[in-house]
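Module 6 notes. Inverse folding takes a fixed backbone as the condition and produces residue identities as the prediction. Think of it as a translation problem where the source language is geometry and the target language is the twenty amino acids. Below is one complete input and output pair. Work through it position by position during the lab.
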């Protein structure tokens, strides 16, 4: 049976970025405590918990509409998910996590922004500035914990500088391209706290490739309107 994901008719809806990130994360053997930051509809954490049933999943979301969707989608797919309606940056976590994952808002606030509040919070990084974001992630991770996320590839240099500041070593990188004629639009990054491993640059992921078609089939999701 497909994994059913309810989404709002209007406003932010998950897209291929999240599925690319899910597949990227899935190359690791997830175990222990996993935190999904900015869960939206809950799809990222739900797919990971489906594929790695022994993890202990928690998620945070500061928009009530998406908090409720995460809860609903977790329940209908029989996923155990401690789901918090909180602002990640304003919360102190007593638990420390083995894995933190996120598809955060990453468009720069200098571009023309949506007037839709839900879309605005979900898309633009003024709502989750990278230094504040990475500092909080580092504090919430176990000493050798992983942080895996996606971002706008044009900001890779800024990301690398900020991650290093907070002892999050980049271990793997994969650039995503719409097709072979266009520049990269997305970057998938795996980091580990206090790691000394060198960076591995994986082969590019091409959005119109057979690999991506197989990825969509493997995700086995069904989107429904709320």
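Target side of the pair, the amino acids:
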């Amino acid at each position: 049976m497909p994994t059913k994901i309810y989404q709002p008719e209007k406003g932010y809806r998950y897209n291929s970025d999240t599925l690319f990130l899910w597949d990227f994360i899935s190359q690791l053997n997830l175990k222990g405590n996993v935190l999904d930051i900015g869960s939206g509809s809950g799809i990222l954490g739900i797919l990971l918990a489906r594929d790695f049933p022994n993890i202990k999943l928690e998620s945070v979301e500061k928009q009530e509409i998406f908090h409720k969707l995460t809860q609903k989608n977790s329940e209908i797919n029989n996923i155990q998910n401690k789901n918090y309606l909180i602002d990640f940056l304003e919360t102190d976590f007593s638990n420390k996590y083995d894995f933190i994952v996120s598809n955060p808002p990453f468009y720069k606030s200098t571009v023309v922004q949506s007037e839709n509040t839900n879309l605005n919070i979900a898309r633009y990084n003024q709502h989750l500035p990278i230094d504040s974001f990475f500092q909080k992630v580092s504090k919430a991770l176990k000493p050798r914990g992983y942080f895996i996320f996606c971002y706008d590839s044009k900001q890779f240099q800024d990301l690398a500088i900020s991650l290093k500041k907070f002892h999050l070593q980049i271990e793997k990188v994969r650039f995503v391209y719409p097709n072979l004629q266009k520049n990269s639009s997305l970057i998938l990054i795996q980091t580990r706290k206090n790691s000394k491993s060198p960076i591995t640059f994986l082969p590019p992921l091409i959005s119109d490739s057979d690999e991506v078609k197989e990825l969509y089939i493997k995700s086995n999701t069904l989107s429904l309107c709320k």
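Reference fact for the lab report: Residues 93 and 140 are 6 Å apart (CA to CA).
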